[in-house]
Known about the structure:
Chain A is an all-alpha fold. Chain A has helices at 2-36, 41-53, 56-81, 89-106, 112-141, 145-165, 171-176, 204-221, 223-233, 235-240, 245-272, 281-285, 288-298, 306-327, 331-364, 375-383. Chain A contains 16 helices and no strands. Chain B is an alpha/beta fold. Chain B has a 6-stranded mixed β-sheet with strand order 6-7-8-3-9-10, sandwiched between helices. Chain B has a 6-stranded mixed β-sheet with strand order 16-19-20-13-21-22, with helices on both faces. A 4-stranded antiparallel β-sheet of chain B has the order 2-1-4-5, covered by helices on one side. In chain B, helix 14 packs parallel to helix 15 (446-461). Chain B is globular. Chains A and B meet through helix 1, helix 9, helix 10, helix 15 and helix 16 of A and helix 1, helix 10, strand 18 and helix 13 of B.
Amino acid sequence: xxxxxxxxxxxxxxxxxxxxxxxxxxxxxxxxxxxxxxxxxxxxxxxxxxxxxxxxxxxxxxxxxxxxxxxxxxxxxxxxxxxxxxxxxxxxxxxxxxxxxxxxxxxxxxxxxxxxxxxxxxxxxxxxxxxxxxxxxxxxxxxxxxxxxxxxxxxxxxxxxxxxxxxxxxxxxxxxxxxxxxxxxxxxxxxxxxxxxxxxxxxxxxxxxxxxxxxxxxxxxxxxxxxxxxxxxxxxxxxxxxxxxxxxxxxxxxxxxxxxxxxxxxxxxxxxxxxxxxxxxxxxxxxxxxxxxxxxxxxxxxxxxxxxxxxxxxxxxxxxxxxxxxxxxxxxxxxxxxxxxxxxxxxxxxxxxxxxxxxxxxxxxxxxxxxxxxxxxxxxxxxx
Amino acid sequence: xxxxxxxxxxxxxxxxxxxxxxxxxxxxxxxxxxxxxxxxxxxxxxxxxxxxxxxxxxxxxxxxxxxxxxxxxxxxxxxxxxxxxxxxxxxxxxxxxxxxxxxxxxxxxxxxxxxxxxxxxxxxxxxxxxxxxxxxxxxxxxxxxxxxxxxxxxxxxxxxxxxxxxxxxxxxxxxxxxxxxxxxxxxxxxxxxxxxxxxxxxxxxxxxxxxxxxxxxxxxxxxxxxxxxxxxxxxxxxxxxxxxxxxxxxxxxxxxxxxxxxxxxxxxxxxxxxxxxxxxxxxxxxxxxxxxxxxxxxxxxxxxxxxxxxxxxxxxxxxxxxxxxxxxxxxxxxxxxxxxxxxxxxxxxxxxxxxxxxxxxxxxxxxxxxxxxxxxxxxxxxxxxxxxxxxxxxxxxxxxxxxxxxxxxxxxxxxxxxxxxxxxxxxxxxxxxxxxxxxxxxxxxxxxxxxxxxxxxxxxxxxxxxxxxxxxxxxxxxxxxxxxxxxxxxxxxxxxxxxxxxxxxxxxxxxxxxxxx
Lengths: 384, 517
């Protein structure tokens, strides 16, 4: 029996390490591309490592990048568990940030902690609305949520550009006629506390980690989470059991959007202290709305595992910047490298599922009974 | 060349195949416990057993898909090693799987040739293959056109391709894994003719089936497996169906369970001229009126597709009622939300238990609270009470004898019978006032079927009103107090069980009133 357990255990260990192997494989292919470009891959990867983890500042930067990824990933965990695909993280971040910024610019008389709290809630609320609309459209009009969330991104970008170039533009910019699309700076009192000055690591990271725990509780310890997962796994059976399926689809997407909205608010209050863009969505979000999806998938749609997954992606983003500066490779290569990691990790996830199925097939032996470890049941069966 | 040594296909016979002391362990379970089994040329040997008894394990070992931990296999008295299906095919063992392994867009000949080397190297030799198929078909009386496309053929004909495939590859001994499960009665008769021809010609056949009457009809010997152990082997002529059923289950099986005497009570569920649509856009129910009393099982008989599904869905709130009225204990429930109807203690055992009754990727414990998850004691203030959920699961697993490694096991890993037990446990444990049971024993083995029926009768004794929708007339007769026959969305007649005969029901099911006939 011990041998069986050992091999089972090994098999699970291999499964757990698959994403790591996948990342390594992607980096090896990246190394080949670097060689073709005439760059020493060891130098390049050393720069990447150094950029991500080489100093306390580097690591802090990694965590700063990881924070919005994690927040978006938490939302993705909820919606994907509910079998609703949310591609609208970018737009939800933007709307959340706009509302949060508006709060900070208009309630300048209130104490800092109160404004921050209201602003975070406003971000949460803004994202919820932006996610809830496609959720509503899906649940009651059967509109495909992948399409509608992407469309909502486009609307959010234009809304942001309009506001940051018009009503919400920094008065200094308006005066100087330089017209950079950004809002005025928040009061110093409204900034999220820095955890390790002089690095930029801020309190938002703590919020994200705490929320990861709360999302875990939400999904597996509350009625709401039970229902979201039930609807995601089998809407038919959920309906038969008396769960109002469409309502929980809306809720899943709404909550997903809320976390992205919060990510937007955290970016404003923790990093930039104002809302700023270059006219594109990623100009503000840094594509966290998309990368958060990858981080969540990398973390197996589990809120706790999304923490290391987000850190890894944060490290890749920060490290790649440094690599680009040190070894002078085109930025397209960095994007390609990130893409490779995504492709390999997603493939490894498919492989993991196959292995799981295989193990199950062995354990289940098709139509036969599953291995029954429960002595009592066996006795009950035998005695009957 | 003596006739005794060669089969008509040219292949040498397997006079005897013997499996000795075969033992196979899986983590936590002994799937095959020192099992002895043998097949001789010219006989059909039935392998009987409930799901999980170890039939498939034994046959997969013989076919080289699993490797035994202990034991040996002898062909014509000589030990052989079978480590893959290729080995077993080379030794002359063929397997007809329950699910056919055919490519629908290819012809019969192409399917047979698939995976075999061509006699012309890189070029195909389909004409040679076709000729050989025609030869084999002639010898064994299998009517089959080699140039026909598989998708054009009936299920019975596709099964013949599988048999030809095995014979083409030189099978002397064939394992037929539940070959009749997918066939119509006529096709079963045709298969039996082919099987008799094959045994006459010197092939040995292993016949795996649940259906006892088939075993008695076609087999020479029968072996029964239970919990991985070989219970015994006997000539079929010395057994009866009842013996075999008792043997399989390990105790006395009641084909006609004791119904007891139950006083029927007040009307629990009332349908008045209920009309609704169907998924096909045609009328589903064309004005159905029924009364179901406390302590009564009302059987709904009918050929499938005559409104049974619509009836269940209309009552449970899953399908919109166009006109008419449904009342549950005096309160109208017409077109209420399924959640609201559930609240009034109407339980539903859906026809498609995997799709509608169960969440495959939820644990057993989670599935057991699917109906009541939002209420105390499983949930307080929106938080799940894991302790109570777990205690509930322990209690129900024990009470309903669900075979599962643990309550944390995903439902998808359980057998059909155990999944039905979970649905049953969940629906019954909430002490329902009315139960709608749709095809509650379809696809279950004898033990599980008996169990489900006992539970329904137990509920009847407790005074629950039960609608039993079933296509199995034996089941309807065994359980019902009254029988309503549905035909094209209307109730043809409601007859008390005592005055119902299969002939009478058969006519009603065909839409004919016996009085008018």
